[in-house]
Design goal:
Blueprint (H helix, E strand, L loop, with lengths): L2 H12 L3 E6 L13 H16 L8 H8 L5 E6 L5 H4 L6 H17 L5 E5 L6 H4 L8 E6 L8 E3 L2 E3 L7 E2 L4 E9 L5 E8 L3 H12 L3 E7 L16 H14 L3 E2 L8 E2 L4 E4 L36 H13 L9
């Protein structure tokens, strides 16, 4: 980890807090020295198998030592993030990733001195079942929540998209359109179409987690470019930021139908941990206005996502923390 990440992790760990750590190889897999995305993905798949076979154990010494030095902290280790078959599976069984997860878990268990590490399976929305490593090794299931997941629009250089097919989105209400299995007037099973605040795959993954006795972690969340008007809010309108925040906390308490399934499901309490990326994304992934890297104006990530910049969104976030009983709250 870089110095900024390490300093923040140390700040939390010294106070016995929870530290989420992403162990990633797909973005910069060992041995990848250039090429297009398909070349990088092929190398990532190969590295996944190598990890399953026990390679690269020397790369984790610093992290193991850090964990051992902070026995009072809790560490959530994501064994790569937003994992997908494209970057991690060498065949349709995805045994490469499943075995890599298991091998890495066993390695950390054998080298850490105390039981303060939980292992997080963080898939892309549609592949949670295919890639699931198993109940015996997964402690938590992670999910990213940006715009698609809450059926909010994203603007990218004049192009509006929302992660669902155009016919499955209500532009007037900014909601997804999906069907669940209900009853017709004769009491027979039938497809019932409705508007949703949440992507169907997210709700189905929450049900999957509950069925497997797992809690979920919102491992990454943040606002994206909701507008294309070039306003002073730099891509984030006050009311849409507040709506995004309300939907995020509404997801934590969801109870109702699930797309493509019959019946209703109480999914409240499945998600119990939320990570918000409070960052000015306009200046790149580090949020620093130092000329090193900026996102283009009106691109997806051209947004100041700091909650402190937007009163309505901040108020909604603080209300959500309080009403959901989070141990971290806002200063009064």
């Amino acid at each position: 980890m870089n110095k900024g990440h390490r300093d923040y992790a140390t700040f939390l760990a010294d106070r016995g807090k929870t530290v989420q750590v992403g162990i990633s190889w797909k973005d910069n897999p060992p041995g990848f020295d250039g090429g297009d995305e398909s070349t990088k993905a092929a190398r990532s798949r190969k590295v996944t198998q190598e990890l399953a076979d026990g390679a690269y154990t020397d790369r984790f010494t610093t992290l193991v030592d850090f964990v051992n030095a902070h026995p009072d902290a809790t560490f959530l280790l994501r064994l790569d993030y937003e994992v997908s078959s494209y970057y991690h599976c060498t065949d349709s069984s995805c045994s490469s990733y499943k075995n890599a997860f298991r091998t890495l878990r066993n390695m950390f268990r054998s080298r850490t001195h105390q039981d303060n590490v939980r292992f997080v399976f963080h898939p892309v929305r549609g592949e949670y079942a295919t890639m699931y490593p198993g109940d015996d090794v997964v402690d938590e299931i992670g999910v990213s929540v940006f715009a698609h997941e809450l059926c909010m629009p994203i603007h990218d250089n004049g192009y509006l998209y929302n992660g669902t097919p155009p016919d499955n989105y209500d532009t007037g209400t900014l909601q997804c359109r999906n069907a669940y299995i209900g009853k017709d007037q004769h009491g027979n099973d039938a497809a019932v179409w409705k508007n949703w605040d949440y992507d169907g795959n997210v709700l189905k993954m929450m049900k999957f987690a509950k069925d497997h006795g797992k809690h979920m972690v919102v491992s990454e969340s943040g606002m994206m470019n909701f507008t294309a008007d070039g306003s002073s809010t730099r891509g984030l309108e006050q009311n849409r930021g507040a709506e995004w925040t309300k939907r995020l906390f509404g997801l934590l308490n969801y109870s109702g139908p699930v797309p493509n399934l019959s019946g209703t499901y109480d999914l409240s309490g499945v998600i119990r941990t939320v990570t918000y990326i409070d960052l000015d994304f306009r200046y790149g992934w580090d949020g620093k206005n130092d000329g090193s890297f900026d996102f283009p104006v009106n691109s997806t990530w051209f947004v100041d996502g700091r909650l402190s910049r937007y009163g309505q969104a901040k108020d909604a976030f603080c209300t959500g923390l309080r009403d959901r009983g989070f141990t971290t709250g806002c200063r009064t």
